Amino acid sequence: MNDQVTAQQPRSFITLAMTTALLTAGLITFGAVVRVTDSGLGCGNSWPLCDGTILPPLNNLTAWIEWSHRLFAMLIGVFGLAMLALAWRGYRKNNRAVITTTFIAAGIFTFQSALGAFVVIFDLPPTMVTLHLASAMLLLGSLLVAGILAWHRPLPKPTQRDNVTLLAYVTTALSLIIILTGALVRGSGATLACPDYPLCNGELFPFNQGSLETVHMIHRLAVVGLGLMLIMLVWYMYRGGRNVMLRRLSVLALVLYFAQAGVGALFVLTSATPLWGASHVALASAVWGILVAVSAIDTLNSRQPVGDIAPAVA
User: Fold this and answer.
1) Collapsed DSSP state (helix, strand, coil) of residue 138
2) How many domains is the chain built from?
3) Would 309 be classed as within a structural domain?
4) What is the DSSP secondary structure assignment for residue 50, as one 8-state letter?
5) How far apart are CA 115 and CA 161, in angstroms?
6) pLDDT tens for residues 87-140?
7) Contact 303/54 with Cβ under 8 angstroms?
8) What is the model's pLDDT at position 137?
9) Which residues of 205-238 are buried (b: 16+ CB within 10 A; e: fewer)?
10) Which domain holds residue 108?
11) pTM
């Protein structure tokens, strides 16, 4: 009976971790909806209440958008507590990496929640909004890593850790940087500083036009750089003989990147239509999440299981 319970715990944790990660991606998208609809202060500077009340007025749409975002975050908190309980029960003796990563995710969630309150109380300063988004992305990444650590089975013969692994790390880091520069574009008011595409007011390097145009175009150029890195990653994943899962995930990241870039262009060309803005962030978080998974899996595939880290139970 005890063996059966032990076998069920990893499966339950993996399912819960991936569900929580999916909800976190949804929360990030919902946060984008809050931003593009200018609902960030829908509840005023009141937190945790909404303008001093438990429920916002029925006729105040922006307040309900902001309030729903907070309730969504609370739901993730509940799932996170359940993850902590399962991790402590199932992994504290045989897979410390899982429980450590889960506790890191809990710490990031606590920081993000406190920062969210700070952002509301102090009128959404752009730097704090960007940091809030960064913590959300790190939360998504840590949840995915926790699930992968619990699920992953080491290869019979570990692959060699080489420049492909380093390329995966750099590409993943660049995807996060681009997300943060995008948040700065929005927060600084530079969203429509370059109303044409792909040029900026007819110029490729509009650095003499003003600070807003410079911020906007730096983001676009960084996006181009990410595309080149992703193409290289896919090429070397195949050339380096990585397993089928890693090759498919890298291709999926590239496909979603092109979708993200296309939606970003539509966001500009349609004068910042909220639908495209929220979709742009959703696709960006998907690319980030997939690249985190690629980096984590490739790292685990290139090392032997050590000491207290046991393979996940199928």
Assistant:
1) helix
2) 2
3) no
4) B
5) 37
6) 998 888 788 899 999 999 999 999 999 988 888 888 767 778 888 899 999 999
7) no
8) 96
9) ebeebeebbbbbbebbebbeebeebbeebbebbe
10) 1-151
11) 0.88
